Amino acid sequence: MATVKGPKAAPATKTDASAFEAVRKANQKDIFFALGGLLVMAIAMTLLLTLIGDLLVRGLGAIDGNFLTSFPSRNPEDAGILSALVGSLLVMVVTGLLAVPLGVAAGLYLEEYAKKGWLSNIIEINVANLAGVPSIIYGLLALGLFVYGLGLGKTILVAGMTLALLILPIVIVSTREAVRSIPPIIKEGAYGIGADQWQVMWHYIIPAAKPGIMTGAIVGLSRAIGETAPIITIGALTFIAFLPSAPVTGDFPFISFAWLNDSFTVLPIQMFNWTSRPQEGFHIIAAATGVTLMALTLSLNGLAIWVRFRLRRGYRN
Amino acid sequence: MANPKIPTATELREQGFVKRRKLIARSMEVFLFLSASLSVFVTTAIVFILVSESWDFFMQVPLSEFLFTTMWAPVFIDPKFGVLPLLAATLQTSGIAMLIAVPFGLIMAIYLSEYAQPAVRETIKPALEMLEAVPTVVYGYFALLVMTPFLQQFIPGLRGINLLVPGIILGIMILPYVVSVSEDAMRAVPNGLREGGYALGMARWQVAVRVVIPGAFSGITAAFILGLSRAIGETMVLAVAAGQNPNLTWDVREGAATITAYIVQMSLGDVAHGSLAYTTIFAVGLLLFLITLSFNVIGFYLRRKFREAY
Q1: Residue A118: how many CB atoms within 10 A of its CB?
Q2: Nearest chain A residue (CA) to B237
Q3: In chain B, at which residue ranges do the beta strands (DSSP E only) sit?
Q4: Which residues on chain B are in Cβ contact (under 8 Å) with A102?
Q5: Domain named ABC transmembrane type-1: which ranges (chain B) (predicted)?
Q6: Which fold has domain B72-309?
Q7: What predicted TM-score, i.e. pTM, was given to this entire model?
């Protein structure tokens, strides 16, 4: 388009004119292109904002104290999300306690300890690959291995373990990025005063990488809190009208882990269940559950962005 | 230690301290290594579980019946195990998703990488990342209860449960991922190439189309292939809005169960552990795993290629 093909012996002014014309056309197309980009962006954003707005309009009104403190019910007006909310939080606790230490350890190993070789190569390829495995496959793994293979049953513990495996790649990758961004001088200084490798990790690398690690862990947890498929696959129930056993008891030793072995439901499953019912009343409380769920995941993500922001500022000062 | 003098109490304490320190360092290294190997264990376990649990299934149902017949009715009295209806629905929804994600994703990525001011880019990218955090069950809700009733006004014959709308929603869902990965690939194209284009008198769009896209081609392709793999493995949108009825149809206005929706449906029902119906979810899971794995391998290979090129 833009190549100017002037006749051989044409007067200079004519060549100039056609060149100007070509440039003008190209620039015109440029404006169309930019407008097209803006338009697509605007359409996509508007669509998503409309969808989220619709969810808010339908759901926000249904969220009240009663909704947050009641069990699911056959009657949508009385139904609430107490058991799902508690279930989600307890599953998250298990997931976090498992995924964060294991993910950080794996990330540290890959970044600081692993020697280049076939073994570390296999591990690297594996981590990358696991990030792309559909979440429902993790559910099948958990069903075959945890629920029936190890006989752990359809419990909070199994759900937490499943989601921990699922978010492990996220924690590993963000740990590695955080560790990589630490200036080498910190490590060198620590080695210089006679610290061994683990001391350097524990006293210098982990504290310095903490904001990055936290960002990854929070993003991973927010991902886990919205995951539905693997939890359905392990056989979580959709109707739970009781709470797991209390973690604190009146008798010695006052702390009980019985809740790990209890049945449970989580917010996404509750929402899935209500969305799939034909009655309009359930759609409204499904929307309300969706709003609660989005509030949880988006605030976790906001927290992650804030932590990352803090990290940047920390380095500058 | 080579000193013949009798060690003082302080020296003894220091020796104990050094010993303990070495022990800790060594055991931590082992722990770190074990954590890193967990990923290998998980992959092995996935393959092992999928294969061993579907072993019974493939002993009873020949592979040719599984792959080439067109009826899927595993819990009927006369059960049929042709996976094609599930596969066809999966491919149709992912295909529709790609029809949305490819053009829109490409335009958005070009806009962000070549046209947008840095400030615009820095606000839009985190916003896109936030959208990746929207739970998929919420997208399922959108598909079933918002988009379908809306589109029913314009598309005659669109059922309440259909393949078209979940396909569109899947496309929107993978858009943030596709945009952010292909934008990364475009930004990795060295500026010298762009400047060369401008020096030849190219306009911005010409640089984008003739320099940046060819330069980032492997990365952009990787983004779309990985996006496609996500669409194939996505579950909740399809379980909610595409229906649970195995139905071999090419009419996207009808509903049909996808592989993932079938797994959800069976998991919700009361299937006896060890029965043939129980093994079907592992058989279709194995198929799903192999499909997404091959796309992921291609995608990772392409991504690595674009990273090595510059």
Answers
A1: 7
A2: A272
A3: 72-73, 80-81
A4: 35, 38
A5: 87-299
A6: MetI-like fold (1.10.3720)
A7: 0.88
